[in-house]
Design brief:
262 residues; 3 domains; Thrombin, subunit H; 2 helices
């Protein structure tokens, strides 16, 4: 009653509060410590989880970036390929390489176009840079292509500068072709562009085949040693062009295909 109705005990109350404060702090210390440790642990765990999530997101974004780069490069290749098709006066169809012959002595690839797409044996194959080869076997949905670098393959060509007619034969390596029976006095120089001559009726005329990179006269031999670098990227690329000339227009057919390739 005295404390309620008067202010005589305020000094006593303040003194008791000062004395009791350390006890209150000491009593509250374990709970505060546990709360602090809990918050610190939770924060550290959350930070670790956030860092892990960010690392995973970073890795995923890097993978997506790499994929976008690959898609961009593939899109550019397709644009170049289609640009090459627009320049050609022949009808063309884009095909995709789906297989490669594992035998290193045989330069053959498989494309995803067959008899149902109008593909025929002997059909010329191009990429954006030049002549790649010809179809040698056709199944219903796929075809086998012999590249110009195969030792058994020959292409009638002519020098774009001098119109000199020659035969380019595969060397067994995608890096170069051999020019057969070139006389030492022939009008041909390193850097000359070789184009398909159209002779023999196998390949359409006017397509880039190779660029001469070596011409060496041989003493005691009437023929020089001449090699040329293929214009087409024979060991690279994914898409090619099937050429349909006026004599062989695109007309899907299932005749004359090899069932063993299906």
């Amino acid at each position: 009653m005295v404390d309620h109705w008067t202010s005589w005990l305020e000094l006593v109350r303040a003194s008791l509060t000062t004395v009791v404060t350390p006890v209150i702090v000491a009593a509250d210390f374990p709970a505060k410590t546990l709360e602090y440790l809990s918050v610190a642990t939770s924060t550290r765990k959350a930070l670790i989880q956030e860092i892990t999530r960010l690392d995973q997101t970073h890795l995923l974004l890097r993978a997506q970036t790499q994929k976008m780069r690959a898609l961009t490069a593939e899109n550019n290749r397709l644009r170049i390929l289609l640009g090459s098709a627009e320049k050609s006066q022949d009808n063309v169809v884009v095909a995709e390489l789906i297989g490669i012959d594992p035998d290193p002595k045989t330069h053959e690839v498989i494309i995803d176009k067959g008899a149902v797409n109008g593909t025929f044996i002997g059909q010329s194959i191009l990429d954006a840079q030049g002549l790649m080869g010809q179809v040698i076997s056709v199944s219903r949905y796929t075809s086998r292509v012999l590249l110009i670098s195969d030792p058994s393959h020959s292409v009638p060509v002519q020098v774009a500068r001098s119109n000199l007619r020659l035969v380019a034969q595969g060397s067994g390596a995608t890096s170069h072709l051999n020019l057969m029976f070139v006389q030492n006095s022939a009008d041909i120089l390193a850097g000359d562009l070789l184009i398909s001559s159209g002779l023999g009726g196998r390949f359409p005329a006017g397509y880039p085949v190779a660029i001469v990179n070596k011409f060496e006269s041989q003493l005691g031999n009437p023929f020089a040693f001449v090699t040329a670098v293929p214009s087409a990227l024979l060991d690279r690329g994914r898409y090619v062009l099937l050429v349909f000339t006026e004599d062989n227009q695109y007309s899907p057919s299932e005749k004359f295909y090899d069932k063993n390739l299906d």
